[in-house]
Amino acid sequence: MGKNIVQKILEAHLVEGVPEPGKEIGIKVDQTLTQDATGTAAYLEFEAMGFKEVKTEAVSYVDHNTVQVGFENADDHNYLRTVAKKFGITYSRPGNGICHQVQLERFAKPGRVLIGSDSHTPTAGGIGEFAVGVGGLDVAVAMGGGPYYLTFPKVIKIELTGKLRPWVSAKDVVLKVLSILHTKGNVGYAIEYGGEGVKTLTVPERATITNMGAETGVTTSIFPSDEMTLDFMRREGREKDWVELKADPDAQYDKVIQINLSEVEPMIACPDSPGNVTTVREVEGIKVDQVAVGSCTNSSYRDLMIVAHILKGRVAHPDLEFGVAPGSRQVIEMVDEGKGLETLVKAGARIFESACGFCIGNSFAPGTNAVSLRTNNRNFKGRCGTPSAKVYLVSPETAAAAVITGKITDPRRLEEMGIKYEDIKLPQRFILDDSMFIFPLPEEEREKVEIFRGPNIKPIPKNDPLKEKIKGMVTIKVGDKVTTDHIMPAGPYLKYRSNVPKYATHVFEPIDPSFPQRALNNKERGVDNIIVGGESYGQGSSREHAALCPMYLGVKAVIAKSIERIHQANLVNFGIAPLLFENPSDYDLIEQGDELEIPDIRKAVESGAEDVVVKDVTKNKEFKLKLYLTDRQRRIILEGGLLPYTAKGGRS
Ligand code: MIC
Ligand code: SF4
């Protein structure tokens, strides 16, 4: 029987397990990436596990925390730079660009496996790499030479036909995908693109699509590697890394979705979820206060050049503020060469650093109740830094149309305003300049390197082995689709990523700022903290701090209706039991403050049992729970997490 692309790559990298959907497999990892906000913890963990050098092609990016208010960010950068030198990691200096954009340009390779401590790592799927977003600890283990364990995914084929029409672009395609798949219910799947329409999309366009596939909750998204891929890699001077990659004609898929690119129209994700998608037409006319173009989804050369083309000779509407963050130094230089930068500046754009910036809410926060149109991938409530703001996610074309009119406008109307569509082509000459990377030192020089550690860098706390029983209380009960931005907000607190005790004082702040103190009081009294969640608990980012900081506060279990993939793995990695309600309606019967007991939890984990009972002592009731863990995950939880497990030499 023929194979699809996902099967081909995974089978070629298999080191453990049976390659069948639903089964846990271990795969060899070729490349890893970290960014500074997750990287400090990942390298502290790498050190704590006693590894001496990296075994992957590893790149450490600095793109998230670049605001440098106070000494903490700069100290973190110095830690990352010196740790990279010590262990043979390529360091991408701040200013070089957003990790996913730069990885795509300079390192990503078709047919290989990349794991990265950032949920948008699947951006590299645009070039045909099997790229997965994971917690920092999984990256640390892979850098040390360990396999990466994942559930062999079922595969959804998205069959593309036709060709995008003017004013419609890759962002509209992925928003269309989100309107079909939504943001939950896709755990355990990967998306593979195929069909005649694929060849009409360039690699950066494909990367916009695979990037935002992360919002559906799938393990990854991937495109074939074809002539278009070769063309991109040739321009990047990397054609030697190109291989062809396509599904066999009789390949099997678990689901097939058809999208005719010629029928896609401008789409928009409305507040407060990337899955809340409709057509731009439906919401036209809403007054816009802010437009932000950038983020790892839409900050490529083409994205900025189409905005520049639309705005040529115009100035941003006086009632709105307008900012642009180019995705990389290469993008800035090429947009500059194409005269796009000058046009954007003349149009009143505030040109931001080539970094995550406003996407993660550490700058350019909108005003009270403001409407912000962004080319980002996430619009969770408060993520932009202003809880009352309404953030809409759009294509660069739709963003630019609003810059002119001051309201949400279907970009197809631009023709009525005398603006002709221009099909922006990739520049003939890509500007190749790797001087902002610090490449690994020769081995003999690494020994002399002293690792810098500023006062804000604290050791990673460790959990204790799992106790016989969990006895505690529901310290917090939260609703559906609680994201990692709710659990462990980023924005102004990003600078505490390497200081867990400090960062932990902000756990659940957007929902209930009194949670950390309550949890600490319980911990001191020997009462275990338990979190009760609804559907799709832990959506969004890969940040392991959403598990690590609750662990530090004494959280021993999460009981939810469903838990998202990366977060489930992070909970296990830090020794927190991820439990699911067997009957989702039991969620309604448990209340915050209830006293709970899970007797024999250790025995259940040891014996491989999937059925666990929790006693609600306050209500005098029992609820049935499910404990879906692989054997390896059970061993990890028993030890108190992946750190103690790996340090003890634990493998499969
Ligand atoms: C995000 O987009 O939420 C982030 C910030 O890039 C995170 C990583 C982090 O929290 O550092 C992600 O997507 O994994
Ligand atoms: Fe950075 Fe935003 Fe991309 Fe996350 S989603 S990596 S914060 S640009």
Q: What portion of the residues fall into strands of 2 or more residues?
A: 15-25%
What proportion of the residues is helical, as a percent range?
25-40%
Radius of gyration: 24 Å
What is the count of β-strands?
A: 27
* Number of discrete domains: 3
- Helix/strand/pairing category: alpha/beta
Output mean pLDDT.
97
Oligomeric form of this entry?
single chain
* CATH architecture type of the largest domain: 2-Layer Sandwich
Low-pLDDT runs of 5+ residues are: none
Adjacency order of strands in the biggest sheet? 21-22-23-24-27-26-25
What can you see in these coordinates?
The protein has three domains: 5-263, Aconitase, domain 3, CATH 3.30.499.10; 267-414, 2-Layer Sandwich (Aconitase, domain 3); 470-490 and 498-641, Alpha-Beta Barrel (Aconitase, domain 4). It has 652 residues and is α/β, with parallel strands linked by helices. The model has no long low-confidence stretch (mean pLDDT 97). The chain has 22 helices and 27 strands. Bound molecules: alpha-methylisocitric acid (MIC) and iron/sulfur cluster. Residues 37-38, 64, 118-120, 133, 360, 490, 540-543 line the site of alpha-methylisocitric acid (MIC).
